[in-house]
What we know:
The protein is mostly helical. It is 70% helix and 0% strand. It is elongated, with a radius of gyration of 43 Å. It starts with a helix and ends with a helix.
Amino acid sequence: MSESVSFRISRTAEDLAQTVAALSKRLVSLEQRLGALEVQGASLQAHVRTAPEVDPAELACLDSVDQLLADCRSLLAVTEPSTTQLPNIELPIAPVDASDSDLAGLDPDLDWDGLAELEAREADA
């Protein structure tokens, strides 16, 4: 029975030693990370201290842009029509038929969009 107790004590001591060694490694790693973060924080603070000052004219310009945006938004909010006020009206559109008597007398070769006239002017120039 004494051998069993001594084995348990030595085994527990070995487990504790391994745990302490792992904790020590972890502590060293955390201290290194903390040191790196402190260096990074110091460099950021130095950068902030040496950063150029903001130009007051640029700030005034940005303030005026903000004011213009706010004015535009307020105008849009006031002038937007409500969909409940507008009636839903559908306009009847009759299909165009080629045999329609009004269209029968039209010459299909006529320049309806004026492109031929523009091309002629460009050719003359």
